[in-house]
From TrEMBL:
Sequence similarity: Belongs to the sigma-54 factor family.
Entry GO terms, CC: DNA-directed RNA polymerase complex
Biological-process GO terms, alphabetical: DNA-templated transcription initiation
PROSITE patterns assigned to the protein according to its UniProt record, in alphabetical order: SIGMA54_2, SIGMA54_3
Ranges for domain RNA polymerase sigma factor 54 core-binding: 122-312
InterPro entries: RNA_pol_sigma_54, RNA_pol_sigma_54_core-bd, RNA_pol_sigma_54_DNA-bd, RpoN_core-bd_sf
Signal peptide span: none
UniProt keyword terms in alphabetical order: DNA-binding, DNA-directed RNA polymerase, Nucleotidyltransferase, Sigma factor, Transcription, Transcription regulation, Transferase
A Pfam family this chain is assigned to: Sigma54_AID
Residue spans of biased composition, Basic and acidic residues class: 58-78, 107-121
Name assigned to this protein: RNA polymerase sigma-54 factor RpoN
Domain RNA polymerase sigma factor 54 DNA-binding residue range list: 327-484
């Protein structure tokens, strides 16, 4: 017996809806920029989809969105009786097209608003990035070098890693060259590479990187060079008095030299990134109106407003087209409808989830991070009446513009612990307290992790020392020894 023969009509209908469900899930979890790209691709792939242009009037747009029920009634072909059921299903599928466009509240912009949008798009478009290697090769191209030396320099440029350091020993680079090169020629080429911008590029270690950034004309050059060459570890651990005693300089001069060293770039290649800078586009706006926090959806002004072309609807119900053409058009219209529905469903779900998050985290918007309560996705899911996985997809890569700044929606979901007052306190609030304690400590005698944990306990948090250590490291706060200032 074939599998298909044992499936009920209801089950077959559910299976047929699966692509629509999958598309809704995919649309829901897309951030706005990715959604814009997706819709633009659909406009290219689906001939029945058209974009509402800025110069169209609302009246024209409303005319474009007459329901298929009316059009089917006007253009029904009696000779194609076998297709009637399919057309009826299509009419039922699209009978709310008019409602959809009346609810989207598409407004026509005047010329000034349109120019502002274009200007905003230009100002927020990432410029094409240049790699470190391209930058160095550009400098090499204007130097007058013989062919062999140029070949060595170019090879070295491609041996420099993302941090700006030479990734391989000089001997290995020489061996990899197709031409015969002496170590003296390689050293000369290295000097050329290390003389280029950014300062410090082509270094083989941290000390060499910092030394390459020094100016011999600096009056403090000798002491700075000495500190980098022979006392870098003592500088890192802030043993300033010990350094002054060893070198015979006064403490103020040592501190002045160290402050200059802090301005040097230990990773000159970091100025050039091969990765595109991620631009954040908030999709949710939180505002306090009459003492109440309200949520609105924003950021979709670049999202194309799409609708089904009336031409193809005429093709579907008119005469003179064969059944295969009409079936193809029907499938494309169905696909377009799924896309429109998925976008609308995404808006509704995102708004409901964001509004519930704001409601549950009102304390944060009034008092800041210390008032951030513990919140799980399941809590929001239960309150809204949706599955927790839907909440997870709805907040994925979505940002909110709030009176406290721009935050990723997942920021508002945090675990915590029961404090001494019997209330739940979020880990984020604890991290803020830890940061405040370190900021206010005596810099000449910084607190140990155990002492920080004791202070947190005094503030009502039952925090273990190892937890303090973990949070301190994740927040990139140095140990007490490295925080000490002489």
């Amino acid at each position: 017996m074939k599998i298909g023969t044992i499936l009920s009509p209801q089950l077959r209908q559910q299976m047929k809806l699966a692509p629509q469900v999958i598309q809704s899930i995919e649309i829901l979890q897309l951030p706005m920029l990715a959604l814009v790209e997706h819709v633009q691709q659909e406009l290219m792939d689906n001939p029945v989809l058209e974009e509402l242009t800025e110069d169209e009037k609302d009246e024209q747009k409303t005319d474009e969105q007459k329901t298929l029920d009316d059009e089917l009634a006007e253009g029904k072909n009696e000779e194609d009786a076998e297709e009637d059921e399919e057309f009826k299903r299509l009419g039922e599928m699209a009978d709310d097209w008019g409602d959809y466009f009346s609810q989207t509240n598409i407004k026509r912009s005047d010329g000034g608003e349109e120019r502002d949008r274009k200007q905003e798009a230009l100002e927020n478009t990432a410029a094409g990035s240049i790699s470190l290697q391209d930058y160095l090769l550009g400098q090499l191209s204007i130097m007058e070098l013989d062919d062999s030396l140029m070949a060595i320099c170019e090879n070295m440029v491609f041996s420099i890693n993302d941090m700006g350091y030479l990734a391989y020993p000089l001997e290995e680079i020489v061996e990899s060259l197709e031409i015969s090169v002496s170590i003296e020629q390689a050293n000369k080429a290295l000097e050329i590479v290390q003389s280029m911008e950014p300062l410090g590029v082509g270094a083989r270690n941290l000390k060499e990187c910092l030394l390459l950034q020094l100016d011999t004309r600096d009056p403090d050059y000798i002491i700075i060079k000495e500190l980098i060459s022979n006392h870098l570890e003592d500088v890192e651990t802030k043993k300033y008095k010990l350094i002054a005693k060893k070198l015979g300089y006064n403490l103020e001069l040592i501190k002045k030299a160290i402050e200059f060293i802090k301005t040097l770039n230990p990773k000159p290649g970091s100025l050039f990134s091969n990765e595109r800078i991620p631009y954040v586009t908030p999709e949710v706006k939180v505002e306090c109106v009459d003492g109440k926090y309200e949520v609105t959806l924003i950021g979709d002004h670049n999202l194309p407003r799409v609708y089904v072309s009336s031409f193809y609807k005429d093709v579907l119900v008119g005469k003179g087209y064969d059944i295969n053409t009409r079936r193809y058009i029907r499938k494309k219209i169905e696909s377009a409808r799924w896309l429109i529905d998925a976008i609308e469903q995404r808006k509704g779900t995102l708004h409901k989830v964001a509004a519930k998050i704001v409601e549950m985290q009102t304390g944060f918007f009034e008092e800041g991070t210390l008032a951030l309560r513990t919140l799980k996705m399941q809590d929001v899911a239960d309150a809204v009446g949706i599955h927790v996985s839907t909440v997870s997809r709805a907040i994925a890569h979505k940002y909110a513009q709030t009176p406290k700044g721009i935050f990723e929606l997942k920021y508002f979901f945090t675990g915590g612990f029961m404090n001494a007052d019997g209330n739940m306190e979020s880990w984020e609030a604890t991290r803020q307290k830890l940061s405040k304690i370190v900021k206010e400590e005596n810099k000449s005698s910084p607190l140990s992790d155990e002492e920080i944990a004791a202070k947190l306990r005094e503030m009502g948090g039952d925090i273990a020392r190892r937890t303090v250590t973990k949070y301190r490291r994740s927040m990139k706060i140095p140990s007490s020894r490295k925080r000490k200032e002489c």
